[in-house]
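Annex B. Sample input.
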Amino acid sequence: VAAALLMAKLSAEARYCLASVSRPDLAVRQLNDRMSDLGLDRFVTLILVVLDKVSHEITVVNAGHMLPILCRTDGSIEEIGEEEAGIPLGIMNDFEYEQFNITLAEGESLTLYTDGINEAFNEQDEQYGEERLLELVAGSPVDSVERGEIIMADVQEFLGTTIQNDDMCLVTFSRSS
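Annex B, continued. Sample output.
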């Protein structure tokens, strides 16, 4: 219940901050301050991605989340934004988050995920791992819907009969033209 209430509060605050502040990095800073002021002794990782569908430019602000995976048309991958990544929300007031921009070329895609995927454990108490995820992203088709289905099927197969112990979220999208 506590986690659900925190997410409801975060959702409402995020909508307010994004509607009232024009720059993504400043909106995340304001969101962090509002969450820090709650004094809950909890934190939240978050990645904000704003897509300009005309220019294909993506603005990213990372608050302690796993790095986005950029997949190029030749199948090579790159985790992006490590230098700009900030701390999770709710840890410290007045943290200055950095935003960065990339432009997706035709056929390139971005994959975002929560730690419930790479930190999933199977029956043998083995972790799915980031390396396995990266290899799967690099070897999967360019179509982002198919890529997402392949990743989730692989995670489920890896888990076997083990009960999922954390939430999992996967977002993958690509530029088609």
